[in-house]
Structures are given as structure tokens and as C-alpha cells.
Amino acid sequence: MNALYYAKSFIYNALPSFFFRWKYGQLKRFEKTCNQKELDTRLDYYFKVQNKYPIPKEATAVKDVKRGKGTAYFLDLKEFLHYFTKEARFAYYFGDDTNVNPYPTLFKARPIRNGNENSILFKLNKRRHFKWVNDTIPYTEKKDMMVWRGGAYRALRREMIEKIWDHPLCNVGQTNKPVEDMPWQKEHLPIEEQLKYKIIFCPEGNDVATNLKWVMSSNSLCFMPKPRYETWFMEGTLKPGVHYVEVNAPYDDLGEKIEYYSKHTDEAQEIIKNANQHVARFQDEMMEDLLCLKVLERYAECSGQENEIKFRA
Q1: Do 184 and 144 have their domain in common?
Q2: Sign of the dihedral defined by the CA atoms of residues 261, 264, 269, 275, in that order
Q3: What pTM value is reported for the model?
């Protein structure tokens, strides 16, 4: 699967310039008919820098952007660099770091707090993060339990798994590699098996919870602590009790809330409906591509590189 994905991506990036000129025109025509409020709201959310700024000395010219260790990140950015000249320069970071640089930089994730403006969100590593599911199991027919599988390499997840791994209403476990001799080390559980549970836990790891997107596209209910980081998915706009159920870090309210939402199915399904509606904002491929282009266009314009945009509508 990975090989096929990478092969398609490399072939796409090898297409001739006239294809990207055509694609640019297609996106610009779509811009005239799309939901302008949605476009503007999301663009302003991703790109918070208000003022003009000099090109950061750390910025890389399009012609010099290299794959490095982040192949998926590289491909996701490269897909939209075709719309700019080879001399256009962008500062970017490939990886899970959530540091806020002193200069505007394209990041996959940033902390949810004031003063994060220099971290400009871009849709990076999207194959891993932007997965949706077609869940055919009604909420009322799922198990009255919470499920989770994932890596527990950092302190936050280690503390979490140690506290809840043996909870009678939970089927949770770490899938660390190499395997650790811990009672909470468990086998991988496929997504289709996790969808049989009413509640799926979405704890943050290096940054955001990787499973959050597919969970919110399902008929299961998302449980998680209040998010600290956000990506293109705009986790900072999610509201507890509206899009997900918030649990506290000590997890002493976990059993009570699992029991409550297992019984109060109408309330649970209303939250799930809201979560599904949030997911729908990211399922229009033309809007997604247009927003990626607009983020880079705004970066070029704000850094005085208007002439480095290769095509014009």
C-alpha cells in the first residue's frame, strides 16, 4: 500500500508544467463558486500572520526542497510547489515538532495557544492522518465499552495506560515495538474491530491523536482530554460535549462517563452527528487543494514574493 501511494505521488509530481497550469485554472474557477465563508475562515485559521514579513533566511527555494527523512511530508508539500517558480522560497518543517519558530514556518501541527501565529498549518503527512471510515454499525448496537490501541512511548501516554489498562469498561493497550514486558502490552486491533465499541479513546501522542479523524467520521463516540495541539483538522475548534466527550487527565471520571453515554444514546448520537459534520468540512477534495494553494500563495504574497507565483488565473 505504501509503495503504491509513493509511486502515484512521484508520478504526479513528474507531470509536465502544462498539467499544473490546467490544474491551477481549475482551482481558481472553483474558488469563484465555492463557499467563500468556509474558505476565508479556514485560511485565516491556518495562516494567522497579519503583517508583511521578510523572507526568512531559513527559507528554502522550491528548486532546493529535498525529500530528506520525511518522504510523505515532502510529497504533500511538493504537490503544491508546482504553482511557484523555482526561486520561490518557503520555510517549512517536516516532522512532529510543535515548536513555534521566530519566523513564519509551515508546520503540520502547532500548540493551541496565543502566540502560535508563526506556525502556519499545512496539510502534511495527510495519508497517515486523514483517514475516514465507512462505519455501518449503529451506535446502539456497539459494545458498552471504550477501546484504544497505540504506541505509548512518551510520558503522557505511559501515565494514561498505566491508570486505565485494567479498567473493567476498557479494552485498551499499547502496541509498542519492540514489544515490552508489560501487562498492558497487547496485540494490534484492526479499525474494523475497534468500530464495534461505542467509545474510542483519542489520546494525543507526539502531537495530535492520529486516530481522531477516522474516529470522528465513525458512528462511535470520541473520548479524549482537552487537546493541546492542532493540525489542518482544526482541533482547536472542537468543543467538549459538542464534538467529543472530555475526560480529565487523572481519568477518575472515565467509568462514570462511559456508563453515562452507553445509556444516554440520544446525547451520544448528537455528539457523533456534530463530529461527522466537522469531518465533512475536510472531505471536499477541491476545497482541500484550493486551501493548500491559498496558504502558499499567502505565504508568497506576505513575504514579498508575489512575482514568484508561476500561473495567473
Answers
A1: yes
A2: negative
A3: 0.94
